[in-house]
């Protein structure tokens, strides 16, 4: 019997300083951890900035456990704009986290840890509860992001139904945004959950469309309320060597959506040029900094009252 053994080592440079055994060991361990899963039979050098990153990571994981209880999470809302009507037609709820030690932590930092620890379910319920309550004051439909982990929760449909009934909010005023991915669109249980939510009257939107796993047959079967063109495709419109490719992709998405009577929303619209190019390509619903940054409910209500 033969065994193939690989060996990786993490190391650090002392160079005249006297950090002590524990510090040297910790630096080597941090370097080795970085190399795990990506490097085999290699020497991985510790980089000083990694210690700060590792410390922040641990603070995020520990802070997440009590952040909801401490009231550290809050929602901001970004308008989804109808260019032809020249007004918002919905708002997307986006979660933010402010911790006194960490400062403002971006969702890109804490969501992966919330997913890994299972806290995403509790966090997701917080977003759903707050967004549905706020939507009555916004007086427009609200879009709420759902992860695959949340869709696996068998109690989700009943929870959404009871909450909207309690708030006396029609379910079609709630649009559930689901990221287009193979994990979701090729999982029969998840697609059945989506269909149940649609039958209950909730809208469904496929987020980041054009970058994931596009199954046209399943798209025809699900018939979401809208497709959201990913901002990475929209960004290509202002890059000379990618512009034609982006236009072709967007035209194809618009044509498919029209054939299936699905609305198209373009994300990441942050300039007049992008707005005009998208409109010329048949997209009239857009979202991005050009139309409005994500703001707290109170700010939006004040803006509405002052206009």
Describe this entry's structure for a reader:
This protein has 307 residues and is of the alpha/beta class. It has helices spanning 21-35, 48-67, 107-117, 120-138, 148-151, 156-166, 182-185, 188-199, 216-222, 231-235, 243-259, 272-280, 297-306, and strands spanning 9-11, 43-45, 73-82, 87-99, 103-105, 142-146, 174-179, 203-209, 226-229, 263-266, 285-286. The strands form two sheets. An eight-stranded mixed β-barrel has the order 3-4-6-7-8-9-10-11, surrounded by four helices. Helix 2 (48-67) packs across helix 3 (107-117). The mean pLDDT is 86.
What's the short version?
The chain has helices spanning 21-35, 48-67, 107-117, 120-138, 148-151, 156-166, 182-185, 188-199, 216-222, 231-235, 243-259, 272-280, 297-306; strands at residues 9-11, 43-45, 73-82, 87-99, 103-105, 142-146, 174-179, 203-209, 226-229, 263-266, 285-286.
Note the main attributes of this structure:
307 residues, alpha/beta, 8-stranded mixed barrel, 13 helices
Compute the CA-based radius of gyration.
23 Å
Instruction: Give the tally of structural domains.
Output: 2
State mean pLDDT (0 to 100 scale): 86
CATH hierarchy: architecture of the largest domain: Alpha-Beta Barrel
Classified by CATH, the class of the largest domain is Alpha Beta
Oligomer classification: single chain
* Low-pLDDT sequence parts: none
- From the N-terminal CA to the C-terminal CA, the straight-line distance is 78 Å
Describe the protein's topology:
Layout: E1 9-11, H1 21-35, E2 43-45, H2 48-67, E3 73-82, E4 87-99, E5 103-105, H3 107-117, H4 120-138, E6 142-146, H5 148-151, H6 156-166, E7 174-179, H7 182-185, H8 188-199, E8 203-209, H9 216-222, E9 226-229, H10 231-235, H11 243-259, E10 263-266, H12 272-280, E11 285-286, H13 297-306
Parallel strand pairs: 1-2, 4-6, 6-7, 7-8, 8-9, 9-10, 10-11
Antiparallel strand pairs: 3-4, 3-11, 4-5
Helix pairs in contact: 2-3
């Amino acid at each position: 019997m033969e065994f193939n053994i690989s060996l990786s080592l993490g190391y650090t440079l002392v160079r005249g300083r006297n950090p002590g055994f524990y510090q040297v060991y910790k630096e080597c361990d941090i370097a080795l951890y970085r190399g795990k899963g990506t490097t085999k039979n290699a020497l991985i050098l510790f980089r000083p900035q990694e210690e700060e990153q590792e410390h922040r990571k641990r603070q995020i994981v520990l802070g997440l456990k009590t952040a909801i209880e401490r009231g550290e999470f809050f929602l901001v809302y970004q308008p989804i704009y109808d260019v032809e009507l020249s007004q918002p037609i919905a708002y997307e709820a986006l979660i933010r986290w402010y911790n006194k030690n960490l400062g403002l932590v971006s969702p890109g930092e804490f969501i992966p840890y919330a997913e890994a620890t299972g806290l995403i379910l509790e966090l997701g319920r917080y977003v759903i509860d707050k967004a549905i309550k706020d939507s009555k004051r916004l007086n427009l439909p609200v879009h709420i992001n759902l992860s695959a982990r949340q869709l696996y929760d068998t109690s989700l449909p009943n929870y959404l139904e009871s909450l909207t009934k309690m708030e006396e909010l029609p379910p079609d005023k709630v649009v559930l945004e689901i990221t287009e991915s193979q994990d979701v669109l090729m999982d029969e249980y998840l697609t059945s959950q989506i269909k149940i939510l649609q039958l209950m009257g909730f809208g469904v939107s496929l987020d980041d469309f054009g970058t994931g796993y596009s199954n046209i047959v399943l798209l025809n079967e699900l018939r979401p309320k809208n497709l959201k063109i990913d901002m990475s495709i929209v960004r290509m419109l202002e890059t000379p060597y990618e512009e034609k490719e982006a236009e072709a992709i967007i035209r194809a998405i618009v044509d498919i959506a029209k054939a299936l009577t699905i609305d198209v929303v373009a994300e990441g619209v942050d300039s007049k040029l992008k707005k005009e190019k998208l409109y010329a390509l048949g997209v009239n619903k857009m979202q991005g900094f050009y139309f409005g940054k994500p703001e707290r409910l109170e700010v939006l209500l004040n803006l509405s009252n002052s206009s």
